[in-house]
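Colleagues,

For the teaching module next term, I've prepared a clean inverse folding example: a structure given as tokens, and then the sequence designed for it. I'd like students to try predicting residues themselves before seeing the answer, so please don't circulate the second half yet.
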């Protein structure tokens, strides 16, 4: 246990000891002490964070969850739209119609239609797959990334007990250049709160078969608690661990925009995926459906 954690734990225990002499302890007081102890020992957050009644008592993820209208009753989503792909110098290289099926937490099926050609890729919660053949390690990594290009991934990983950390705020007054827009100044500047999550796809890191673990930072707009973007470092070599500080890595960024409410939930109708400081693809969403009757076989290799 690190020094800071020991300090917090001792402080929490001291508070408990001091209060035991009181004739009675309110339920609110007991809850507060339990929360201090949980944070101090670095314990994982419970599967379904309890939403407090007072807005001022909510942490950042809970405020974002409230703002987005997310709940544990959402089992799956189906997103329809069009995707345009770009090369390293910003030129468009192709377009496709896309349908993204997600069964939470980690079921994925993506159908890409280019004219008469149809390609289907997915993730069955253990393995990435493709209708065109067995993907190599780099292709499998790119397939799994489709699970991280949605803002609700923050709520899914937190709800699953992943390690959660608030990392302070940052002020942004400039938006990086996009092939169809160019760089733009943000006026007035926006203040973003940073929420860091340990996000593992597939088997946990301590199992015999290591999963895909990344440390994802979500940027939450301080003024309205919408999720502006998600960012993480991706090793150039998919066989290298994200814990390997010597492994060359590229910055991955996903921007969310054009927010609309569907079924009481905020969904981004524009999603922009960046790799290494360059736009990789842009999705323009046309329709979102939730809690559809999706068969188990949809998330398995055909």
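(Answer key — instructors only)
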């Amino acid at each position: 246990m690190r020094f800071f954690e020991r300090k917090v734990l001792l402080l929490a225990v001291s508070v408990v000891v001091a209060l035991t002499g009181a004739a009675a302890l309110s339920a609110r007081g007991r809850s507060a002490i339990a929360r201090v102890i949980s944070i101090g020992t670095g314990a994982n957050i419970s599967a379904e964070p309890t939403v407090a009644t007072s807005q001022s008592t909510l942490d950042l993820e809970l405020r974002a969850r409230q703002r987005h209208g997310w709940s544990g009753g959402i089992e799956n989503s189906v997103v329809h739209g069009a995707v345009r792909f770009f090369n390293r110098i910003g030129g468009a290289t192709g377009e496709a119609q896309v349908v993204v099926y997600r069964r939470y937490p980690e079921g994925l099926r993506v159908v890409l239609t280019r004219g008469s050609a149809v390609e289907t890729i997915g993730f069955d919660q253990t393995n990435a797959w493709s209708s065109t053949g067995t993907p190599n390690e780099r292709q499998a990594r790119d397939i799994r990334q489709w699970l991280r290009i949605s803002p609700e991934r923050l709520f899914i990983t937190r709800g699953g007990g992943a390690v959660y950390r608030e990392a302070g705020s940052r002020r942004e007054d400039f938006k990086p250049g996009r092939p169809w827009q160019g760089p733009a100044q943000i006026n007035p500047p926006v203040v973003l709160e940073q929420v860091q999550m340990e996000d593992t796809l597939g088997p946990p890191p301590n199992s015999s078969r290591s999963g895909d673990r990344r440390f994802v930072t979500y940027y939450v707009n301080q003024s309205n608690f919408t999720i502006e973007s998600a960012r993480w470092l991706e090793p150039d070599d998919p066989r290298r661990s994200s814990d390997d500080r010597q492994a060359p890595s590229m910055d991955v960024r996903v921007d969310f925009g054009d927010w609309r409410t569907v079924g009481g939930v905020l969904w981004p109708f524009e999603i922009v995926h960046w790799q290494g400081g360059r736009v990789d693809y842009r999705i323009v969403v046309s329709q979102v459906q939730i809690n559809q009757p999706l068969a188990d076989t949809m998330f398995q290799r055909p």
